[in-house]
Amino acid sequence: xxxxxxxxxxxxxxxxxxxxxxxxxxxxxxxxxxxxxxxxxxxxxxxxxxxxxxxxxxxxxxxxxxxxxxxxxxxxxxxxxxxxxxxxxxxxxxxxxxxxxxxxxxxxxxxxxxxxxxxxxxxxxxxxxxxxxxxxxxxxxxxxxxxxxxxxxxxxxxxxxxxxxxxxxxxxxxxxxxxxxxxxxxxxxxxxxxxxxxxxxxxxxxxxxxxxxxxxxxxxxxxxxxxxxxxxxxxxxxxxxxxxxxxxxxxxxxxxxxxxxxxxxxxxxxxxxxxxxxxxxxxxxxxxxxxxxxxxxxxxxxxxxxxxxxxxxxxxxxxxxxxxxxxxxxxxxxxxxxxxxxxxxxxxxxxxxxxxxxxxxxxxxxxxxxxxxxxxxxxxxxxxxxxxxxxxxxxxxxxxxxxxxxxxxxxxxx
Length: 414
Known about the structure:
Largest sheet: 5 strands, mixed
Strand content: 25-35%
Number of helices: 5
Low-confidence stretches: 1-45
């Protein structure tokens, strides 16, 4: 399952895919910011230490262990220093987040025989992966980001993996557009308002399936750019990332991009599965999750610096600051960089290919750093006018942290 990124064929695929990417709109998901965060310098110095190295789990043993932090067998983070300066994140460096253990690898023995039940359309039926492949194909570059990316910076220490920046990546997906499948089945049935994906993980015995099943509902409008993907970065989808079939919804947080997709349903109401009704809700501090609270859906404008990363002292003089910036469905138009904790800002240059509004943009700015300590931060603005905030929105789950102060890095210059 390892992807050979050095082969000429792979490089040609990645370059050629960029020209084929489709662009379409998605609504902005706005949340009211609450006053909180400490000053940038304090936030940067309080960043949690990386956990001790753990071995990769068997289903992800093909990944590059030197580029990753293994939190648990189901949560694996990309190191800040491993993102590099290419737009696409190599599969062997991409993070992993599973709500349930992955299915047995035996499901990959005959990928084309995998079955997807499509309901809530005029002609509901099961389709094999082989049949889906006959209905069309598109390639799209998207940022895949766990909703809890940046949770490690919350002073409240929410339960869950203490991700810093590494629960994210920019990926090329290939598959059939959901809209093409729906059209082939006669269109969405009357009165349907949501698109619900259900994962095919094996559920634990003796429990109510609705309490554990990975099943998420999205507004029907999300169908417009959604993809049923069987390929990632030009290679067959791996078990670690949802093979043989994954629902990809550009602009939406990772939990909504259902792995091992076995059912796609259009319905008049949201799923009543616990992960939808109570999970991934923006619950105020001290509160309990309930269906009335906002759900974690579209991503918000965000950026962070990758180099210098602050792990090692830097040399005084000219330094190139690089990083990435993205938004849920609006192109990045501007990235500013500060080397003094946000007191002053300079415009960085957007570099590298633009792979569409759902991909991230890389930025770079040469700066001169004198000996001492510097807090380096980035702040992104998208085409819709959304500006990355200084403060995070406090919530029980530690979700949607796009605070530039939290993501700043403290760099010692010798």
